Amino acid sequence: MKVSNFDELLPINGMKLGTAFAGILDVDHRPDVVVIEIGNTSNTAALFTSSSFKAPPVIVSKNKISRKKPKYIIINTGIANSGTGDKGISDACHICDCIAELMGVDSDSVLACSTGRVGECLPVPKILAAIPEALSSLSVDGWEKAASGILTIDSGPKGVSKKISFDHEVTITGIVKGSGMIKPNMATMLSFVATDACIDDELLNYALKKVVNETFNQITIDRDMSTNDSVFLIATGRSGSVIDEGNFHVFYESLLFIFQELALAVVKDPIEAEHIIEVSVFNALSDEEAKKLANEVAESLSVKTAISNKKPYWGYMLVALGHLEITDFDTKLVNIWINGCHVVKDGAANKLFSKISDNVFDEFLEIRIDVARGRSVRKVLSNDVLHHAHHRSI
Amino acid sequence: MKVSNFDELLPINGMKLGTAFAGILDVDHRPDVVVIEIGNTSNTAALFTSSSFKAPPVIVSKNKISRKKPKYIIINTGIANSGTGDKGISDACHICDCIAELMGVDSDSVLACSTGRVGECLPVPKILAAIPEALSSLSVDGWEKAASGILTIDSGPKGVSKKISFDHEVTITGIVKGSGMIKPNMATMLSFVATDACIDDELLNYALKKVVNETFNQITIDRDMSTNDSVFLIATGRSGSVIDEGNFHVFYESLLFIFQELALAVVKDPIEAEHIIEVSVFNALSDEEAKKLANEVAESLSVKTAISNKKPYWGYMLVALGHLEITDFDTKLVNIWINGCHVVKDGAANKLFSKISDNVFDEFLEIRIDVARGRSVRKVLSNDVLHHAHHRSI
User: Fold this and answer.
1) Which one, A122, A232, A260, A319, has the greatest CB density within 10 A?
2) Interface contact flag, B353 A305, Cβ < 8 Å
3) In terms of domains, do A305 and A247 share one?
4) From the list B183, B302, B325, which residue is nearest A302 (CB)?
């Protein structure tokens, strides 16, 4: 499926990005190191993977950002520096220290992100050797090159920009990597979003948590939570517009658009994806139940197979809903619609399923599931990718 | 992978099995209806799927067995009669009633099992028409034909027998269907095990729960819990040997062997399976934690992909262990061995992984994971099947 969300990326005053080739990936001389420079006056919020196995760069960055405002983030692709123990920690610190020394900043203000194969140590000398090139290429127009420089098995770069009219014009630009693919090699999600609006730390962190919960936390492909997932939201404040409680909802609407586009781009990324699947569970007993039910359907290999093959096996959605072993589930009250077609009626596959219109298997499948148990709702986004990319080189 | 567990099946005094062709499957005129006759004096224990979406035959049989000792079980393959609502219930009852009338028994003593496609109604007239043929072919030697007659996409019949010396010789014979396959079409597990030992209801139920917990509940392939899973254990008492608390452990040892062989046969069934994976988690904080951690590793598509491709990506096991988001997990204490090779040492991929011996990727992979958190242990069995069988006809 072609990624259609890569527009021209607008510069953000106060943000520079530089890219270099370190030879970690060693594919077509593709850039594999990116440095992001965050101007003074900026605030930065970050969220990291909740895996109990956090990769060393996550441990290091999470620790540093609790102490200092970040000024640089260095990202490498190819090797995730995960499952590398103490050596991984010291490697990540060593790379940060190099930038700190060259740029004359405190080492705590330099963060690191890595993505790629798990269980291998970084080629630190190669990365150190590439840092000067990355720093010398720092540019406000560096977004597009950076969007490419953070990729692993992704089929293409993913990014989006948006302008909002406040007293001064405000711009938001974001990039993401993540193939949303059943991952054999590497499919960590990294995302960097910046705006020139001025937002205080508290509101910025609130905005990031809220928007990630409504976007990146609502995509699920293969049940594999990465050890390296990291998302950054930076507000440089250079536009002169201040976002506060009064105008937050206007800003948030655009921020949500940016994150929605990035999340969709991840789900659309694999060339093998023929269908995008949006599963909404309505009237669950609790938010937790709604989320679990939606995930079971969206992650079910049987459901994906049926959709991928355009087979009307609606029963597999019932099978997936059954996984949670809810004992007081009155299954006769379950109704399911796909793109408006009523495929499961009162807990049973609708007999008319063979006669329904072709739009059931459109590229975008909106699956609405009413479980008639309460009032909670949850939506998740997935795709119908079943196969692994192990044959693909990166 | 060839299924090697199908031996000559020994008759059980008091049990007869008949097979017929109803044309539900419509593949090479393969038999698709099986009737099992359970002699008087027998006790029967049964366990059914814990899915919240139980198929009508499960609902009907569960209900009946709570009231009456079963005398007949009718099984059909091809269509699972699941997701069929009230129509499914009345269809299952109708089929049971037909046998009850023909054989002059109470309808409550006739149970039904179905396996096959979900969301379709049974072709009841076809099944009714096949019942006389199934009844007329009832034979103590019917086990092998029955083992074939319950299959769907399985690559072959699966069954095993064992004799035990008590005061009188006791025999146990069991058959199973289930492909252990990532299932697009049908992969319900059904199993019927019988012995001529005399065992009272309470002990029989205890034995079935215990043995299923140690075997069928420790295999996991694709996370899809079927709506039709049913396992029966029948004791006809005809050998004259009584099993009680005094000799139970001797009997149980053989029963465990039978169930272990059947469970292994399910995991080995798919021809695409190149590796059998046994994951044991040691020193977890609780039984529940041990089970969840073992399942995450055994079900991880990344782990399966790595094994299937013989790639030394031990890090994926750490990724899978991380899924549970255990906050106080000291990952530096995790050690993993594959067939004796120490691939993860103190939470990091062992640097020597590229030099380890070839036996790491033997057909049988024994993965031992020490999480150093407590004293609980759990073992699960899986395989490295990644692809779907949607291209296979049944």
Assistant:
1) A319
2) no
3) no
4) B183
In this structure, what CATH number is given to the domain that contains residue B49? Answer: 3.60.70.12
pLDDT of residue B31: 93
Question: Which of the residue ranges A27-31, A252-256, B177-181, B263-267 would you say has the lowest mean pLDDT?
Answer: B177-181
The whole-number pLDDT of residue A362 equals: 84
CB contact under 8 A, B83 and A349: yes
Whether pTM exceeds 0.95: no
Please write the tens of the pLDDT for every residue from A145-204. 999 999 988 888 999 999 999 889 999 999 999 875 433 334 568 999 999 999 999 999
- Model confidence at B393: pLDDT above 60: no
Indicate which residues of B carry an active-site annotation.
Answer: 188
Query: What is the number of domains present in chain B?
Result: 2
* A392 domain-assigned: no
Residues A157 and A30 in one domain: yes
| pLDDT tens for each residue of B186-224 | 456 889 999 999 999 999 999 999 999 998 888 887 777
Residue in chain B nearest A55 by alpha carbon: B319
Q: How many other β-carbons are positioned within 10 Å of the β-carbon of residue B121?
A: 17
Tell me if A329 and B302 make a contact (CB, 8 A cut-off): no
Task: Kindly list the distances between the CA atom of residue B88 and the CA atoms of A65, A90, A369, B114, B187, in Å, as whole numbers in the listed order.
Answer: 59, 63, 22, 11, 19
Domain enclosing residue B307, as ranges: 276-383
Q: Do B390 and A305 touch (CB under 8 A)?
A: yes
Asked, for residue B328, whether it belongs to a domain, the answer is yes
Q: Are residues A250 and A280 in the same domain?
A: no
CA A62, distance to chain mean position in Å, is 18
Instruction: Measure A172 CA to nearest chain B CA, in Å.
Output: 32
Residues contacting B61, CB < 8 A, separation 6+: B46, B48, B73, B92, B111, B112, B113, B230
Closest CB to A322 among B225, B312, B351? B225
Nearest to B160 by CA among B47, B35, B264, B29: B264
Single-letter code of the amino acid located at A374: G
Domain presence at residue B10? no
- Residue A389 belongs to some domain of the structure: no
B319 and B233 share one domain = no
Taking Cα atoms as reference points, which of B298, B119, B384, B383 lies closest to residue A388? Answer: B384
- The ipTM is 0.83
Q: Which residues of chain B are within 8 Å of residue A272 when distances are taken between CB atoms?
A: none
Closest approach of B191 to chain A, Cα-based (Å) = 20
Q: Are residues A251 and A285 in the same domain?
A: no
